[in-house]
User: Fold Urease accessory protein UreG from Nocardiopsis coralli.
Amino acid sequence: MRLGVAGPVGTGKSTLIATLCRELAEQISMAVVTNDIYTDEDARLLRAAGVLPVERIHAVETGACPHTAIRDDVTPNLLAVEDMEADFAPLDLVVVESGGDNLTATFSPALADAQIFCLDVAGGGDVARKGGPGIERADLLVVNKTDLAPHVGVDAERMVADATESRGGLPVLALSQQDDVSIKALASWVLQVLEDHRAGIHVPRDPGPMAPHTHADGTTHTHEDADHGHEHG
Assistant:
């Protein structure tokens, strides 16, 4: 399964992924693909944290707005993911981290089977009410860094309630690195979605459009193919 993690700059995406690796790496086979515009900063952070063997963490330098490489032309990411899948087969989970972007940044279903969208309380308590495809339709919305709420004047419970209302019942998780219960809940959610994906019962929310792209074997899908959708192995 390919799990996309998106959200604005500084919301804690890399830390969230590091946490997932620590919680799950002994249970399932994982790899990570990170995105930065001009650097490999996020990949270096994860490698330095020792959450996975360094060769299982690959950096993509997008050279453009982060959403371009996860939504509009996913080929560089797709090639990186497929290379990891070939090198470390069989993999259970590849996590793809978007570069920090705005509230419209979502993954094309050509790249991600499921998506986590990450907000944090320091970004403002009203952000969850602003909506957008990631907030409203990602498979999971994480309200991160809830332990900081008292220090930034945000009511974390209200923010979670607003997010829940915006999502029409789709799951919302309040997460803090200081709260082991929330960390376990995040890991459990990922394992459940992985189980559903394996069973063929996971229905991707697909908040992003199907992007034209090229696979590692040279197969290319055009705008016309994207309009009709296709299956990925």
